[in-house]
Design goal:
This protein has about 450 residues and is α/β, with parallel strands linked by helices. It has 17 helices and 15 strands.
């Protein structure tokens, strides 16, 4: 399990993005003749006019029946589809002494229609970055951040865990990030203090804690489906952690599906949110060789050294003595089943893919994640919901996640209908973040700059 922690630390070799567009706060931005996917239900509003003013949706109605200012920036939406911006709830942003690498990752997310991110490996620099994003100084998605990780490496005693919780709460982090290696005693101290301090905790489930205790303790979200495979595998109490493999990779074929209903009921009853990061499972943990993913054209936005480390990590997984294509296929299949069962049983799913991470490029892999959710059995509308209305519920933001009058203007303009084909989320014509409109030409130009660097 330590391998995730190591790879995350290797992946911070990114480059600087260009300047953001000037704010259009001084005039209205209007989408005309556009088809709206409001996400308040599985429906489509055809031929609409949407007026954006000062970062809010000021008006929405049938084409020709909505008035707007003469000096408005008018965007022709004919034949296009307007959707709420998506959230990436297991993002990573590099920690750097230079702002460039951090701002570049923010732009990669934004270029892909990601208008909110939750950074899952934080630092004091991220608190500064969050402030600069909120003030408009830096162009980027709405930014929530955890603090530095709680892991078997960083927390050696319950006393230290308690101290770290209080320090991170006082510093102003939004969440605590839990990594593997925590003992039951240390975890209990962290969880108890977090409740007292009023700061949610999320992330991995340590093997020594187990998912049943994690659910009881009230994780804000369990990410990666971590601990799920172990929870439904008979005889797990007789196995050492090293025998189970990464996310249960070596034991997935032994899982007992008759134990799934109890797991789903516990998750739902305790209102535990789940961030599947299925793109990680479908790529890193699949039976496919590294070369299958090394050809991904979006790797050009990553530092070559990081890409090489990803290839090595994938090769190490495939070359492990306990690996077999049969076991890997069983794991991927079981993960799809777990995602589907969460959706079917009313367990809240949040969109997140864990990027940058093994063959997951920021933003682009979130697009892949939505596709993988559909492959797992979700409808396109349900997959879109994991990054829009579900996130709005999770964050308690009643003015986001749905396109309606008064809500924030975090929007994505698509060339095709994502309710019919989830792959249309990749065909972005432009992104609206607050008062700023990023047309496709601008996005492509900025991406070319990143590629050249």
């Amino acid at each position: 399990m330590k391998r995730i922690w190591i790879v995350v630390c290797l992946m911070l070799g990114l480059k600087a993005s260009g300047q953001g567009l000037a704010s259009n706060a001084d005039r209205e931005i209007v989408f005309t003749a556009v088809n709206v996917v409001p996400m308040d239900g599985e429906r489509l509003l055809r031929n609409q006019t949407v007026v954006v003013k000062e970062g809010r949706i000021a008006e929405i109605g049938s084409q020709g029946k909505v008035r707007y200012a003469g000096n408005a920036l008018v965007i022709d939406g004919k034949g296009r589809y307007l959707v709420p911006g998506w959230a990436e709830m297991h993002a990573h942003v590099p920690t750097s002494d230079r702002p460039g690498p951090m701002e570049e990752v923010l732009f990669l997310y934004l270029a892909n229609g990601i208008t909110t991110i939750r950074g899952m490996l934080g630092s004091p620099r991220h608190l500064e970055l969050r402030s600069r994003v909120r003030s408009g100084e830096v162009l980027g998605p709405h930014f929530y951040t955890t603090g530095p990780s709680f892991s078997g490496q960083s927390v050696k005693s319950a006393e230290r865990g308690i101290e770290m919780v209080k320090q991170q709460k006082a510093a102003g982090y939004d969440y605590l990030k839990l990594h593997p290696g925590l003992s039951r005693e240390i975890f209990d101290a962290i969880a108890s203090t977090a409740r007292q301090e009023g700061i949610p905790f999320a992330g991995h489930v340590s093997f020594g804690v187990g998912v049943w205790r994690a659910i009881e303790a009230g994780y804000s979200s369990i990410d990666h489906l971590d601990g799920f495979v172990e929870a439904i595998t008979p005889g797990i109490d007789t196995l050492a952690e090293r025998e189970t493999g990464l996310f249960g990779a070596w034991i997935a074929e032994r899982a007992d599906l008759t134990r799934l209903p109890a797991l789903m009921k516990a998750l739902k009853d305790k209102k535990i949110w789940v961030v599947p990061t299925q793109a990680l499972g479908e790529r890193w943990l699949s039976p496919e060789p590294a070369g299958r993913f090394a050809a991904d054209p979006h790797l050009k936005y990553m530092d070559p050294q990081v890409v090489r480390s990803w290839i090595n990590t994938k090769n190490n997984y495939n070359n492990h003595p306990d690996f077999s294509p049969r076991k890997a296929e069983a794991l991927v299949k079981l993960r799809r089943k777990l995602v589907y069962e969460c959706q079917k049983n009313g367990v809240g799913l949040l969109l997140g893919c864990d990027a940058p991470q093994v063959f997951n490029v920021p933003g682009f892999s979130t697009q892949l994640e939505m596709g993988y959710l559909v492959e797992a059995g979700l409808t396109p509308y349900e997959a879109l919901s994991t990054g829009t209305v579900n996130v709005a519920r999770y964050l308690g933001k009643k003015d986001s996640g749905v396109i309606k009058k008064g809500n924030v203007s975090d929007l994505v303009l698509l060339a095709g209908n994502p309710l019919e084909d989830i792959g249309q989320t990749r065909n972005i014509e432009g992104v609206m973040i607050g008062t700023r409109w990023l047309p496709a030409d601008y996005i492509r130009a900025e991406l070319r700059k990143i590629e050249k660097k």
